[in-house]
Amino acid sequence: MIIHEITETAIRRSLNKLTITFQDFQLSESLMKAINRMGFEEATPIQAETIPLGLQNKDVIGQAQTGTGKTAAFGIPLVEKIDPASPNIQAIIIAPTRELAIQVSEELYKIGQDKRARVLPIYGGQDIGRQIRSLKKNPHIIVGTPGRLLDHINRRTMRLQNVETVVLDEADEMLNMGFIEDIEAILSNVPSEHQTLLFSATMPAPIKRIAERFMTNPEHVKVKAKEMTVSNIQQFYLDIHERKKFDTLTRLLDIQSPELSIVFGRTKRRVDELTEALNLRGYTAEGIHGDLTQAKRMVALRKFKEGSIDVLVATDVAARGLDISGVTHVYNFDVPQDPESYVHRIGRTGRAGRTGMAMTFITPREKDMLRAIEQTTKRKMDRMKEPTLDEAIEGQQQVTVDRLRTIISENNLNFYMTAAAELLEDHDSVTVVAAAIKMMTKEPDATPVRLTDEAPMISKRHRNNRSSSKRREGGGGGGYRGKGKSTRSSYGDKKRSSNDRNRSSNDRRQKKSYNN
């Protein structure tokens, strides 16, 4: 077995500018179109190692935690090899829970959309007659839970004689839930000549036996976390819902008044929308990402270094190799796709012996990523409470007071003394100073802005808690970094109409049934 261990060297390569992009894999035009639309730019370590092996039809054992991008790691080569003209099932993905099966199928649908790859999720709790009707529509890829997959095999409503690729996702979780015998029965119905990709955070003996029995000379890709020191950076997280993120960001900017700050978004779309929203709220912001020309990036960076803009909004790729001194604050508006990217992000601050602050927004279902980051950095983040509107106003008032003190200390006020004396004849000094503070203070701006929701990185603990009550067919929430269907949301005082909410609900239901 060949072991590809992604250790300090790979992490150093990622933290420097020697990164692997999806263009490096020489994928088909249809796949690249989908990848670009999804906002992917740079391959994570597990993707960089697994995708080439998958494209070469090699068996792979991938050891990686949730949130490392493993779905795209197996999904991209899997979809690339699909023959859309064939009516046969060509690939099956076995997942421990219905939530994970749905999430994986949604991501595969988006990856294969331009190639017209048909993806069908199969799981317990859904009407089996409906699933049988969907199976008659000739899906290319099946994503399912072990019990329901085996049920269809036994009913002869699903035939696997043409399957070329099998993926076991979160194999250790399926072992914990008692699915090993079902998995072995499913694999026994697949042709002996097929590719197998097995992903598991750990490799207990039963998983190793499956690998020995059903895999041929597998290559082992292991993502190994390396301790990374960021001792001079204060690290905080905010437990926050997606729809509160933007108002929270602006309040933090008002309270903290950073000299230079970078806001990180997960996708190019997010960067564009955040930049526009910040400017609408009265901040001066510029965004940089992979779609911008080098000239436009340089203009934005020059403005940032000169201090003529308040905020630089960036994707991970665009921020690689930036050498900007004086960055005091980093805001992770979206959780990064892997812990190593987090270390790179916050490394933009706290340079040259200076201290820095990093704030990361964690939605309720992203706690697994918080733990993964803390394990990588070997440091616990402190929880920061959501700032209130009053605190934001007080923060801006303090900025004004500090500016007034600076002006007073410069002692260059002779030209204004006469006007000040005239004011004091009609008003007391406290009233005059209060009026000056009010005039100079930036008032809170509640202008509604629109951002596209980004689906969370699903909490693995939440999935396990729910699956314990429904052991065989899972009932838990995820463990997969799915992107789901995005919806346009209004941030600020306005809320979506009931029609918008109903339409989003219908979209989700349609997506969970059958993807054509």
TrEMBL record:
Chain location of the short sequence motif Q motif per the record: 20-48
Limits of the DEAD-box RNA helicase Q domain: 20-48
Residue numbers spanned by region Disordered: 447-516
Alphabetized InterPro entries for the sequence: DEAD/DEAH_box_helicase_dom, DEAD/DEAH_RhlB, DEAD_box_RNA_helicases, DEAD_helicase_CshA, Helicase_ATP-bd, Helicase_C-like, P-loop_NTPase, RNA-helicase_DEAD-box_CS
Compartments where located: Cytoplasm
Biological process, per Gene Ontology: RNA catabolic process
EC class of the enzyme, as a word: hydrolase
Domain of life, per lineage: Bacteria
One protein family per Pfam: DEAD
Biased composition (Basic residues): 459-469
The protein, known as: DEAD-box ATP-dependent RNA helicase CshA
Family named by the database record: Belongs to the DEAD box helicase family. CshA subfamily.
Catalytic activity: ATP + H2O = ADP + phosphate + H(+)
EC number(s) from the headed UniProt entry: 3.6.4.13
Role noted for this protein: DEAD-box RNA helicase possibly involved in RNA degradation. Unwinds dsRNA in both 5'- and 3'-directions, has RNA-dependent ATPase activity.
SMART domains in the cross-refs: DEXDc (SM00487), HELICc (SM00490)
Residue span(s) of domain Helicase ATP-binding: 51-221
Biased composition (Basic and acidic residues): 491-508
Domain Helicase C-terminal: 232-392
Listed HAMAP family: DEAD_helicase_CshA (MF_01493)
PANTHER family named among the record's database cross-references: DEAD-BOX ATP-DEPENDENT RNA HELICASE 47, MITOCHONDRIAL, DEAD-BOX ATP-DEPENDENT RNA HELICASE CSHA
Keyword field: ATP-binding, Cytoplasm, Helicase, Hydrolase, Nucleotide-binding, RNA-binding, Stress response
Subunit text: Oligomerizes, may be a member of the RNA degradosome.
GO cellular component assignments: cytoplasm
SUPFAM superfamilies: P-loop containing nucleoside triphosphate hydrolases
GO function terms (MF aspect): ATP binding; hydrolase activity; RNA binding; RNA helicase activity
Name of the gene: cshA
